[in-house]
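# step 3/5: fold
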Amino acid sequence: MTAQPDHASTPPPVPGPAAAAELLTRLRNHPRASTWVPAFEQAWAAALEDSRHSYSLTPCIDVVRAWQARLAAAPAVQAFISSGRDDSEGIALDDVLGPRR
């Protein structure tokens, strides 16, 4: 038997049609733009290809949500790194975001 929550969580809202373009603009203005923009563009291209084959927007939605979470967490991550604490164990993004739908 697996543990199941006793309530159904509400999924986050689906990003709007312009969410990827808005996200890319925010990434280009971020201090880590030199590494994040190419990484986002690569993930976005792969998601578009997956969507083209699967006829589902889920891969695109997942990429937008993951990068929105990265941008939202960036200040906390920077504060943690600046504090000098041990980060050698790390944490997987899936542990923060939860299972993808």
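# step 4/5: annotate
The CA atoms of residues 27 and 36 lie 7 Å apart.
# step 5/5: archive (pending)
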